[in-house]
Design a protein that fits this description.
Structural class: alpha+beta
Radius of gyration: 22 Å
Largest sheet: 8 strands, mixed
Number of helices: 15
Number of strands: 11
CATH superfamily of the largest domain: q2cbj1_9rhob like domain
């Protein structure tokens, strides 16, 4: 369909040709080496370049090109210089896991529920528990620079710790937020140009909190796959997942290393086949400053007043949908993943979905008010 992607646009041969393209060493002059089509950057080289006014923009431009037009992945060796801070943060995260074990929902986006331990909003929790440790942990010029290379200044950091114990199973192949957190039907509803925009709005990263040999299951990556235009549809198709399983690669990491990749890259956490490695990674999802509306709107107040009026008017079909779209929050993110986890799907019920459901069920005004209060409350930090 012109202007929209469907499974018919997902050509297997074109995809296979794309992922077979090699990364030429001369394309990444700042990299120390290239392995499995992935450039690896050494901390000493990176910090030296970042401290030189003439070299810094060249390095950032190289990273942006890798993430967009080349393999889609960069590995930064020694990205986090304070290893003691990594260890102390690991202890804090382990304590949070224990504290939350009783109350946690165990929801996860792409892994079996309960198979991994998650710390949602690890960024805020670490900062509030130990602000001095937080400051030491994130005092990484390399980390800040790669975020700026892809998103520009004023980016927003978020983080979710993932702890995969020995025997933990792999995730399914996926792309990431935004369009990657949607069902196939939802993703296909967005026009093709939005499929190209979505990866430019976020950056994915992972900080290794322990040494991660291949047997521990570091993230499986498929270089070049972020350049496949209908990939948000393709990643859900069995034939493309089979290609991923055959051709994806893994990079061993050491404590303090970081890997960053385009959110449109096909990827999945691997199986932890070790007997004694508690594989902990702090998963960073950094957002563009520009993914926001111009004004702050009190949408709960609007929807609360609107509901009885819409019941009385009896709007239906496209007219009803247009009214809901103008007033209610149709997107389920951002949310508080501790109290509003992705159980039973990739996201919880949005405000717009609640309003539509209430009209379908002809909820009383009082029942809708209560449901709206609950919907709003569980999203708050």
């Amino acid at each position: 369909m012109a202007g929209y992607y469907t499974p018919a646009d997902c050509n297997v041969e074109a995809f296979q040709a794309l992922i077979a393209e090699p990364l030429v060493r001369s394309q990444v002059p700042f990299a120390g080496s290239v392995e499995n089509n992935i450039p690896i950057y050494e901390a000493e080289t990176v910090l030296k370049a970042l401290s030189a006014s003439a070299e810094r923009p060249k390095l950032l431009a190289e990273w942006a090109r890798v993430l967009s037009d080349l393999s889609g992945v960069v590995v930064l060796k020694g990205a986090m210089p304070d290893i003691a801070a990594i260890d102390e943060a690991t202890a804090v995260f382990n304590q949070i896991v224990e504290d939350e074990r009783v109350s946690s929902s165990g929801g996860d986006h792409f892994g079996e529920r309960g198979a991994n331990d998650r710390v949602w909003n690890a960024l805020q929790k670490l900062c509030l528990r130990d602000p001095s440790l937080f400051a030491r942990y994130f005092a990484s010029p390399a980390l800040a620079a790669v975020c700026e290379a892809w998103l520009g200044p004023w980016y927003q950091m978020t983080a979710q710790v993932n702890l995969v114990r020995p025997g933990g199973k792999a995730q399914v192949c996926h792309r990431d937020y935004h369009l990657g957190f949607m069902t196939q039907e939802q993703a296909q509803a967005f026009p093709a140009h939005v499929h190209q925009l979505s990866p430019a709005m976020t950056l994915q990263g992972a900080i290794a909190h322990c040494d991660m040999p291949i047997e521990s299951g570091p993230t499986k990556l498929l270089p070049n796959s972020q350049r496949f235009a209908p990939g948000y549809v393709a990643t859900l198709l069995p034939e493309f997942r089979a290609i991923f399983d055959t051709h994806s690669v893994q990079m061993p990491l050491e404590k303090g290393d970081a890997v960053f990749f385009n959110p449109a890259l096909f990827h999945a956490a691997g199986d932890n086949k070790s007997t004694d490695i508690q594989r902990m990674a702090n998963l960073l999802q950094i957002g563009s400053a520009m993914g926001r509306t111009l004004e702050r709107i009190d949408r709960p107040a609007m929807v609360r007043r609107l509901y009885p009026a819409m019941r009385a008017l009896g709007l239906e079909g496209a007219a009803r949908a247009a009214t809901i779209a103008a007033a209610a929050e149709g997107y389920p993110f951002p949310t508080n993943l501790d109290t509003d986890p992705p159980i039973g799907g990739l996201a919880s019920e949005s405000q717009a979905e609640l309003l539509a459901r209430a009209l379908d069920e002809d909820m009383s005004d009082a029942d809708f008010d209560a449901a709206l209060d609950e919907n709003t409350k569980r999203r708050l930090p």
